[in-house]
Amino acid sequence: MCHVIVTCRSMLWTLLSIVVAFAELIAFMSADWLVGKAKPLGSEETGGGAGGAREPYRPTLGLYGRCTRVSHMQISRRDTLCGPYAENFSEIASGFWQATAIFLAVGIMILCAVAFVSVFTMCVQSIMKKSIFNVCGLLQGIAGLFLILGLILYPAGWGCQKAVSYCGHYASAYQLGDCSLGWAFYTAIGGTALTFICAVFSAQAEIATSSDKVQEEIEEGKSLICLL
């Protein structure tokens, strides 16, 4: 008989697992890892005449993508163009960024797999006498290590030619130059911290779903068990 067991701790762990996976995936795909130095967009560039106001903008650079402003003949029309600058893996600007992409991709794949499995833990709590919560928690810890390795290696690539073109000649490994860190980098760091929190919290989810109170309700013949 299938028992659907829902507790506050198990549900919170499931939601956090899903949020972490999506946060890391969005950060990985974003072009807002580095925010470049401000570049003026003035009348000389737009052809709008002497009355055109100079409006600075800051292009952004990601692991394999970038966003920049494209000027048209009309001063009122300025489009932001975003897309990958690398058509394949070998064209990623730095070997360190290639390694970062690999580590982050592995970590994110593990997190997405755990997030998918976590949805079914309401019905299935163990496989081959192994707690799914404990296995998923271990996988989240491993994913967190991959994410940390990727985030540590990422700043080592700030001295690549692509980063220098965005951040100025003072940019080098672990030196931002004229750039600043974008929201995607901070999201990746926050997601990594939450990954380890999820790994620890998985043990609490396992305890909650195997408590004496749950066992009592199972013995009473209940198939849907909801506990605070």
From TrEMBL:
GO cellular component assignments: membrane
Primary residence: membrane
Locations listed in the record: Membrane
Topology versus the membrane: Multi-pass membrane protein
InterPro entries per the UniProt record, alphabetical: LHFPL (IPR019372)
Entry's Gene Ontology BP terms: single fertilization
UniProt keyword Transmembrane helix present: yes
Residues that span the membrane, as ranges: 12-31, 96-120, 132-154, 183-203
Entry keyword set: Fertilization, Membrane, Transmembrane, Transmembrane helix
Assigned protein family: Belongs to the LHFP family.
Protein name (database record): LHPL2 protein
Organism in which the protein naturally occurs: Nothoprocta pentlandii
